[in-house]
Amino acid sequence: MNDENLVYDYRFNVVDEPSEWAFNWDYGECGTSRPTPREHHASMWMTMNVDDPIRATTSLFQQHGMRFGIELHVQNPTEDTDGNYILKVTSKRTRRVLMKGEMQEPDEGGPLNDPNVGHFCYFTCHTEAGFEMMKCIAENTSHGFCALVPHQEVEMMNDGGYRIVAVTGEGPDDHNENNGDNENSNDSDDGCGERGDIATRFTLFDGEEEVARCHMTYRDGSYDPSMGPTIEMIAVKQSRRGEGLAKVLWHHVLRFIETHFALECLNNDAPIGTIMVKAAQITLPEVEMRMTKRDKSLVPLGYKHLLYDYFGFSVREQKGVGAYMFASRRPKDEEAVLYIPLLSKEQLAKKRLTDKRNAPKPGDPFLRSKMGKRSCMYCSKVGMDLMRCAGCEVAVYCNSRCQKLDWKHRHKKWCNKTREELKELMIKEGAMMKLPDGTCSLNMSFGM
């Protein structure tokens, strides 16, 4: 083990001091941090996991064109379009733009041609006519191959003074006021955002107080085109932790995904008939507290533990270009995946009828364990039922040998310490520099 591991562990494995909301909620990796709902705005994804996805898309829209009076226009990839096909759907009668979209060009023989990485096209609309057309296309496309997400604010739960509000949209500054409604807008930009600008923010309120939040985007930063929404942050307000609010919010986040993002994951390593939910930038801030069965005491619960130990996420092993992009010092368990059943419309309708009775209620601090696959902190092997360091409960290992080797060369320096407690050692060993203004900065060249 090299000295640089101290910097690495400080960044990714050492727990920070608890804070009110755990994360910087003004930051979004690939989607807007401030989703803004707008009338008649929506995003639509269509999977095209075939050898020639652009041909399949063209064929599909020829069928829709005869039925709905629309036409698909395709612009071939160029350097200016970052290698993407540019798509535009117009009305045959009025010639007005209804939808705009894009599709990534298949990479012949390259990393994007990995069979575990799917192809899809993405469309946006910003007009009433475009939104109505999107709904027609979604209703007439095979279930599991098309997802339509309106940019709107919806109340998902209202029970006993608690309510959950989901807000979906592009950022407040991502909209061009020319929305395609005027006669001269045929070839102009109708304000359709690019893939990645959209996000959904879920907020749990107790009366008027925000008590829990979840931020979800629709693309992660790994450049893996496998489709599935990405959980970027979920946290309970510090003063309200230990009331079971995280599991209440998560239950309704899953219901939202099942309903609005019913897109089957076609990766070879995914279970058949499932939706892929991803989580990115998984770190260790305290986001909730849980009650122990032994003595009924409340103990802190970090973001990583919440996802892997109680929500059932597993380490996401990168495929295609993602394997190249993430072949680095970033921890393997910084990205996770959860597969949930792709329910039919009939199954969703039945589930909604029983959901109010079966949904978790605020006030129950117990969390049922639901373990996913983790990676050994020493050898990076992925598996189930890994042993956990009793001191910090952060480090997990395949066996006692890996644990002993990691302790000797690395883990004993930071086990059960917070970032604040580790600063003195970091400065002493040269892994951190104290600046003239009294603040500290990591020495990223340490150990190199």
UniProtKB/TrEMBL annotation:
PROSITE patterns in the record: ZF_MYND_1, ZF_MYND_2
Keywords of this entry: Metal-binding, Zinc, Zinc-finger
Region (Disordered): 166-193
GO molecular function, one term: zinc ion binding
SUPFAM superfamilies: Acyl-CoA N-acyltransferases (Nat), HIT/MYND zinc finger-like
MYND-type domain residues: 376-415
Pfam families xref list: zf-MYND
Protein origin, superkingdom: Eukaryota
Keyword Zinc-finger: yes
Record-given protein name: MYND-type domain-containing protein
Annotated organism of origin: Ditylum brightwellii
